[in-house]
Automatic annotation (TrEMBL), chains A, B:
It comes from the Bacteria. This is Rrf2 family transcriptional regulator. Pfam families: Rrf2 (PF02082). GO terms for molecular function: DNA-binding transcription factor activity. SUPFAM superfamilies: Winged helix' DNA-binding domain. It comes from Streptomyces hoynatensis. GO terms for cellular component: cytosol.
DNA sequence: GAATGGATACTCGGATACGAGCTGTCCGAGTAAAATGGG
DNA sequence: CCCATTTTACTCGGACAGCTCGTATCCGAGTATCCATTC
């Protein structure tokens, strides 16, 4: 079980966007340069965030991405599901269906006790992610590293290196 | 993010093993036939369970796999980590290291707030899995479907179809 | 009849191909800004 | 000087390869069983 690399990039990029002036957009290329990431691939992830309604994108000069809503209303789960998709990690393929006495007209994903237990664990995972907003993470970073917001903003507003 | 198919197989196979007579072994081929699974591949998963100390394997005629300890002492997390490995799904690659002001001698997996939040969610997931033992699942199945243990045992002890 | 040695068949175990999905890259459609020419 | 029009440059957006890892398979090492042979 392995999570997409893009999730980490997306989270950090959203965090960086939250430190910009409200309404200010930033291009995928510049967001990628901040961490020395492949620009086109990060662009792909940001597109997914835009499709999910987390970011808004504007093309053309002075265009780019910006947060679609306040960080208080963006949970970590929103970002993760935007990148990873909504399909659960443990997909019950219904082995019981192929076993003796298996019926085709039964939804074993719902009835199978094993599936339920695994599903319960994933629910706990999602609940924990949904309980943390981007604003919470942002606040923690600002408390521990007070210079980060100003430093980040100045990096993005400085002329291209 | 996608969990190995083998996890589901391993869980159901452990459950089936728990319904056999204590000390009775069952071959990978027969366990696979129960759900119509590829035998050699299931064997691979069972090997992983044996390496993790969840099952014991004995070669030769009358050999096979059996539970290494009581179902009360086998958690779902044990099975999952045996198959999936212990590496967490969200691996912090330390994008901060490549960012401005990044240091090579800092463990960002520990300091990065994003990484910590994601790690906390995975901890909740593991905790939920660790709280459920194979005996719990077994008891739930026996309560809901009382005929399952006898039926399963008879299937495994019946002559090969 | 009992014991012994060997042959046998069966099981796990790891080494070996195949394929899906993540990773990475490219170029085109569309847009806002800037430049240009005229009034 | 101001405005309309054209040009320009820049951005996202989706379509196209490369590669790692999960999926599937095969054959060999080792062992308990069974059988033939001998005492």
């Amino acid at each position: 079980m392995r999570m997409n690399e893009g999730v980490e990039w997306a989270l950090h990029s959203c965090l960086n966007l939250s430190w910009l002036e409200p309404g200010e957009a930033m291009t995928a290329a510049r967001l990628a340069a901040f961490y020395d990431l492949p620009a086109a691939y990060l662009n792909k992830q940001l597109q997914a965030l835009a499709r999910a309604g987390i970011l808004t994108s504007t093309p053309g000069p002075r265009g780019g991405f910006r947060l679609a809503r306040a960080p208080e209303r963006i949970t970590l789960l929103d970002v993760v599901t935007a990148i990873e998709g909504a399909t659960p990690a443990f997909r019950c393929e219904g082995v019981l269906r192929n076993g003796p006495g298996g019926r085709d007209d039964v939804d074993y994903a719902k009835l199978c006790v094993v599936s339920q237990s695994m599903h319960r664990a994933e629910l706990a995972w999602r609940k924990e992610l949904a309980g943390q907003t981007l604003a919470d993470v942002k606040a923690t970073v600002e408390r521990r590293y007070p210079e980060t917001p100003a430093r980040t903003r100045s990096w993005f507003t400085s002329p291209r290196a």
